[in-house]
Amino acid sequence: MSDSCCEGNIDVTALHAKQRRILIIVLVINAATFLMMVFAAINSHSSSLLSGALDNFGDAMTYALSLIVVGASEPAKARVALFKGGLIFCAALAVAFQIGWRILHPETPVFETMGFAAVMNLAANLLCLWLITPYRDGDVNMSSAWECSRNDVSEGLAVIVAALAVWMFGSGWPDLVIAICLLILFLRSATRVLRGAWQKLSPISVQN
What we know:
The chain is mainly α. The chain is built from six helices and no strands. It is elongated.
């Protein structure tokens, strides 16, 4: 019996160590991708690229918070998930502001810079999703981190589509349309993460 219990404790400890290692890796990837995309967005004048950069920043914060609560209690993880949902919502507000600015000050993005950054961003997002997927059903903490990574892949594909459309039509409007779609994606993701965290906290609230 004692051997079984010790083995179970070792397995849990090993799982938490793996989760921490994966979160550190995706945190570094997202931080590096954020810096690259901000630089590219400024130089290319792309709203969708800047939206993606803000998403990467929010995700880097999300992974950092997820790293802190690995192995913590479920209520603690749920509270952090609530904060993560709030971060995604703030990123959506930033995207909305950027879209409004670009509508009032229209520009055609530089396709070459935008396209290169979009491809690099998608590659980084796919790597992060692949790393986190084995842990997505572990708990609310890893589930919300996986949710962010899945959104990143959709965002990466969307920015590539925007870059191609800008090149085809020679207009900045496709860039704005994709940025608006990303805004809707951020809002849906924030709602999903907040709902999941609240459901985890509800039984605790009732008991208290």
